[in-house]
Amino acid sequence: MKKRVLVSGGAGYIGSHVTVELIAAGYEVVVADNMSNCDMTCFEGVKKITGRDDIPFEKIDCCDPAAVDKLFSDYAIDAVIHFAAFKAVGESVAEPLKYYRNNLLSFLNILEAAKSHSGCNVLFSSSATVYGEAETLPVTESTPRMPATSPYGNTKQMSEDILRDVVFATAKYDGKDGQWPVKGIALRYFNPMGAHPSALIGELPRGVPNNLVPFITQTAIGKRECLSIFGNDYPTADGTCLRDYIDVVDLAKAHVAAVSRMVEGKMKEDYEIFNIGTGRPVSVYELVTAFEKVNGLKLNYKFAPRRPGDVVAIWADTSLANKELGWKAERTLEQTLASAWAWEKHLAENA
Length: 351
Ligand code: WQD
Known about the structure:
This protein is α/β, with parallel strands linked by helices.
C-alpha cells in the first residue's frame, strides 16, 4: 500500500518540487494550498513532469481548523509536509500580525489534526534564518539559535519549538480519546534557488523579488533595470555577504529522505532537526559572476548600501543530514544558475 503525504503549500515553489520527487519515489501526494502566494502554473507543471493528472488538489486555507481536519479525515495521511506560510522577511517586519497569525495558526491546525489521526508524521519547513548571525561557522544543528531578526524568522523558531513540545507531549499517547503520538522533523533550509531541469516549475515571486536569484534572472530578462548588490563593505573576501545556496531539486530530495525516515520508523529521536544546505559558502558577487559566466551574458548590477537585517555570512555543516538521511546536495552552483535562467526564459516565452 503506497504511503500518502499531505503537502500544505504544495502549489508553491518548494512544495511543487517536493511533490515531483515524492511521486517519483512512489508516494501518493495530496496538495493543499490557498493560492494566496502562487497561481496554478507550478501545479500544472507538476502534472506534466509526473504524467499524473490525478494528483488531488484541495484549495483550502490552513488557518481554517475545520478544513484542515477534514483533509485528514478524507485522506489517510501518513505524513504531512508543512510549507504553507508567508516568507517575505521585509514584509513580516511591516506586518507582524499577518505573519504570526498565518504562519503559527496554520501550523497549530496541522498539528492538532495530526495528533487526532493515527500514525501521522510532521515534517516542518524551517530555515537557517533561525541561526541569525552565528558566532561559529559552519553552523551545526546544535549551534545556538540567536534572537530572530524578523517576525518571519521568529515564526520559524516558534514553530520549531511548538513541534518539539507537541512531539514530547504526545510521545505516550496511544489513540485513547482519539489522541495519537506525533513524530516530527524540522528541516532548516539554507538559501533555496534554481528550478526543475524541465523548466516547467520554478520560483514565481509575486511583485518585486526579495530574494537574490529571482532578482538576478528578472534583471537578465529585462523585467528589472538593475540588480543592487546590498553591501560590498562586509568583512568577507570580496566584501559581499556569504550564503549557502542550495538547488531546489536537491532540497526536494532531502524531503523525500526525511519522510522515508519517518514512515519507515528509522528516526532515532521523536523530534529531529537537520541542516539542508551544500556546506559551500558563496558570496553575492561570486554568484553574480557565476551566473554571467554559465549563461554567457552580462548582468546590469551596481553596489548599493547594506540591507538592514542581513547577516554577514552563514553556511551549513550538513554532516548530520548526510549521515542520517543518506542525502547530499549534488547539483553544482553553475547547474542551478543555468536552471534558474532556463526557467525565467520559459516564463518569458509563455507570458
Ligand atoms: C541573499 C543575499 C542579500 C537581493 C531569506 C530568508 C530565508 C529564506 C531565503 C525565504 C543577501 C543579497 C538580495 C538583492 C542582494 N527564506 N541580495 N540584492 O536574506 O539570505 O534569506 O530568504 O525564502 O529564510 O531569511 O536571502 O536572497 O534575500 O539574500 O544583494 O536584490 O543576497 O543582501 O546577502 P536571505 P536573499
